[in-house]
Design brief:
By secondary structure, the chain is of the alpha+beta class. It is built from 7 helices and 8 strands; from the N terminus they run ααβααββαββααβββ. The chain is globular and about 55 Å long. It starts with a helix and ends in an 8-residue tail after the last strand.
């Protein structure tokens, strides 16, 4: 009885301020259990994404504090100092960070709105992307580098020339009943919007599910 009472009390506490990751910071509501992800998967990566300290406010790329204080938490990823990492870019950032961390370099690529395929493996080999009007091409300009700084430079180029319109074409549409952690709600356009599912919980009694989303916005922000 004591154990049941303790667990019932804990389940009513949704936010644990001392938690450093999504998994540690947020507890599933009463009667729900967090969906356990496969070790090494993108879903597990998202659930264990590092968070800034509880109470941290959202800031824009220029350091200005966002007036609308509705975010439950802020991820520990820099937003950069340019107005680049907006909604679709934040989705691509998380996917890219996972592939970079797990060294799945051949899977790390995104398409520009023009249709040009920007392969990170090519960038890592020392090639850089030249954009002249509607013409986009690779040019060998530097030596091979696997550094994180070079990786971020690659992403800034992607953020500049890709967005919801291009990302929509890269993703495969599924039904809501198939949704998993790591899937994306997206509306392509100018402007469009995209948010990514970073956690899910299920009620085993009725199979109802809850999910948490992460997003950036315009202008670029945490």
């Amino acid at each position: 009885i004591s154990l049941f009472a303790f667990r019932k009390q804990q389940s009513s506490i949704l936010v644990i301020p001392s938690g450093n990751t999504i998994d540690e910071r947020f507890a599933p509501p009463a009667n729900y259990s967090r969906i356990k992800s496969e070790k090494g998967s993108f879903a597990e990566f998202l659930q264990n994404t590092s968070l800034k300290p509880h109470g941290t406010l959202v800031h824009y790329y220029n350091g200005q504090e966002k007036a609308n204080k509705v975010a439950a938490a802020v991820l520990s990823y820099d937003v950069g100092n340019k107005d680049l990492q907006q909604c679709a870019d934040a989705v691509m950032r998380l996917r890219a960070e996972y592939l970079y961390k797990t060294k799945q370099f051949d899977l790390l690529h995104f398409n520009f709105t023009s249709g040009f395929k920007a392969d990170y493996s090519k960038w890592r080999s020392g090639y850089r992307i030249s954009v002249k009007g509607n013409n986009v091409s690779w040019i060998k300009t530097t030596k091979e580098s696997e550094s994180y700084q070079s990786f971020r430079e690659y992403l800034n180029i992607v953020f500049t020339y890709a967005g919801t319109a291009s990302l929509t074409k890269e993703l495969k549409q599924i039904s809501l009943s198939q949704m998993q952690i790591g899937d994306v709600f997206i509306k392509g356009g100018s402007p469009g919007h995209a948010v990514i599912v970073v956690d899910m919980a299920v009620n085993p009694q009725n199979n109802k599910k809850l999910f948490m989303v992460a997003q950036s916005y315009m202008p670029a922000q945490d």
